[in-house]
Fold:
Amino acid sequence: QLQLVESGGGLVQPGGSLTLSCSASGSTLGYYAVGWFRQVPGKEREGVSCIDSMDGPTYYADSVKGRFTISRDYAKSAAYLQMNNLKPEDTAVYYCAARTWGSDCETHAVRSWGQGTQVTVSS
Structure:
């Protein structure tokens, strides 16, 4: 049973940076495509960025293009989300997800979720 744990969230000022990490246990993350999603209270969980293989296409939500970078490390069974130039509207709980290969960056394609990590962007 794949288990995912996120880390790296926290409080940051607007314009700052954070790197979220996702580590896997129980199985290898390499068996799955991966993605990062986020959710704010009262809204649906949305896809932020998704990637299948490191040499394949990546998806970024329009709101984060040019600021966020997704990556994965097969050897470490891990995934990362580098977030730069953070804005208050990026405040949310961020979730790591193991996805079905070749799927869209949508919640219905997620096979396993992490527990989430809070990112707060505020001065």
